[in-house]
């Protein structure tokens, strides 16, 4: 740490604190993750080494860049490029959601990050607003926090990456967790990340989590854990309840037809029918998308396309469609956002309510 000076603390996680620092020699601003426990802690050491190994393999413009890793006084430090905001902070500023074209650009960038990860047989397993960094100047999005990422077991190159069969059944903050994870599956795959893309998309459209996780169904589940299953009569009453609000009704007037098709394609209950990362990137929802640098989605996609079999009910929409048990399942920073009025700040390119918007 001698060559860095701490500017401020910017966040804290299960294993450590993230510091905004300045390189004394170059003046560059970086983010340094300082782990709380000593290097002798096997859990911390294993998690850190796994994250370093994966990040060194994943070099992509939509994945946060690891610049260096070092040890000081039995502490582990990871040095990353610094990005000024994360998506959770952005939604604090814009609680009504983001402008439609910004939503499209963010989802496209996240899809590209997952496409790259999945091509390297890496599943992230913890996609949530806190782990999506946003540059407020050029709208670039970067996926971060690979502490719970894994190589797929059948293709693992290192034992600590999750070899020898099953994956851990706890991953992802509850609101962004795929159905197969909620059911305790340990044989899940890349599809869990695709589900999370849909959850993120829904949340940035209107500022509210798509599946908040604390509901009547949650309550029924907890009751049954303690007292056993519902009686036949109770189950009959439960099944007569009206269907919850559909995706179509929830986002009526907020999503285009193509955007709706994309969301429904990633939020398929049957993971085998869920869109792949390849299908996400090439979906026609992104046709005509132009980045701030003038690059179109169509220009980028061919660089990554491979022959991929189409999958799922919505897979024909594009040109080439086809734990750790205690990972802080605490939504306090999220619930605080939905229970507290946030002051509005004017960044015209991103707010749906803005009268002037910078176009992509």
Describe the structure.
Residues 4-286 form the Protein kinase domain. GO terms for molecular function: ATP binding; cyclin-dependent protein serine/threonine kinase activity. It catalyses: L-threonyl-[protein] + ATP = O-phospho-L-threonyl-[protein] + ADP + H(+); L-seryl-[protein] + ATP = O-phospho-L-seryl-[protein] + ADP + H(+). Its EC number is 2.7.11.22. It is a single chain. The protein has 360 residues and is an alpha+beta fold. It has 2 domains: 4-81, Phosphorylase Kinase, domain 1 (2-Layer Sandwich); 85-339, Transferase(Phosphotransferase), domain 1 (Orthogonal Bundle), CATH 1.10.510.10. Helices cover 32% and strands 14% of the residues. It contains 12 helices and 10 strands. Helix 3 (100-119) packs antiparallel against helix 5 and helix 5 (191-206) runs antiparallel to helix 9. The relative contact order is 0.13. The model is unreliable at 154-165, 304-332 and 340-360 (pLDDT under 50).
């Amino acid at each position: 740490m001698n060559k860095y000076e701490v500017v401020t603390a910017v966040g804290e996680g299960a294993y450590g604190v993230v510091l905004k620092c300045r390189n004394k020699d170059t003046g560059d601003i970086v983010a340094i993750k300082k782990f709380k426990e000593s290097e002798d802690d096997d859990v911390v050491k294993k998690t850190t080494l796994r994250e370093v190994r994966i990040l060194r393999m994943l070099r992509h413009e939509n994945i946060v860049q690891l610049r260096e890793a070092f040890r000081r006084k039995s502490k582990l430090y990871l040095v990353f490029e610094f990005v000024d905001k994360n998506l959770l902070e952005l939604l604090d500023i814009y609680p009504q959601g983001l402008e439609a074209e910004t939503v499209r650009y963010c989802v496209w960038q996240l899809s590209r990050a997952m496409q790259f990860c999945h091509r390297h047989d890496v599943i992230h397993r913890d996609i949530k607003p806190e782990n999506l960094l946003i540059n407020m100047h050029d709208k670039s999005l970067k996926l971060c926090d690979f502490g719970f990422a894994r190589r797929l077991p059948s293709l693992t190159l290192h034992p600590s990456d999750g070899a020898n069969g099953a994956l851990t059944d706890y991953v992802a903050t509850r609101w962004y967790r795929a159905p197969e994870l909620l059911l305790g599956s340990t044989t899940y795959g890349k599809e869990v990340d695709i589900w999370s893309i849909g959850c993120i998309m829904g949340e940035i459209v209107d500022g509210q989590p798509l599946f908040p996780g604390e509901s009547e169904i949650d309550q029924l589940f907890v009751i049954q854990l303690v007292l056993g299953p519902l009686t036949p009569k109770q189950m009959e009453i439960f099944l007569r309840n009206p269907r919850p609000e559909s995706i179509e009704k929830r986002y009526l007037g907020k999503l285009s037809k193509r955007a709706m098709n994309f969301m429904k394609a990633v939020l398929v209950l049957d993971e085998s029918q869920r869109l792949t990362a390849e299908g996400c990137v090439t979906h026609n929802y992104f046709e005509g998308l132009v980045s701030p640098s003038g690059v179109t989605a169509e220009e980028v996609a061919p660089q990554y396309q491979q022959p991929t079999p189409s999958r799922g009910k919505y897979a024909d929409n594009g040109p080439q469609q086809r734990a750790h048990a205690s990972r802080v399942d605490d939504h306090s920073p999220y619930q605080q956002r939905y229970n507290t009025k946030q002051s509005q700040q004017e960044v015209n390119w991103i707010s749906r309510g803005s009268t002037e918007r910078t176009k992509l």
